[in-house]
Amino acid sequence: MGALIVLIIFVIIIAIANSDEEVTTPDTNTSNNQIDLEDLRLKKKSNGILKSFVSYDYVEDLIIKLLLIISETDEKYNESEIDFISDYIDEILKSEKYGSTYFLAKSLNKTKNTFIENLKNNNQSISSIKNSILKQLKQDLDKKQKMELLELCLRLIIVDSEVTKEEFEIADIISDKIGIGIEDDLYLELKDKYLLKLNSEVIFSGDSIEQQVGIPQNLGEKEKRKYILGQYKKWNARMSVITDKDEKAKVQKMLDLLSEAMKNYK
Question: Is 219 or 15 the better-scoring residue by pLDDT?
Answer without folding.
Answer: 219
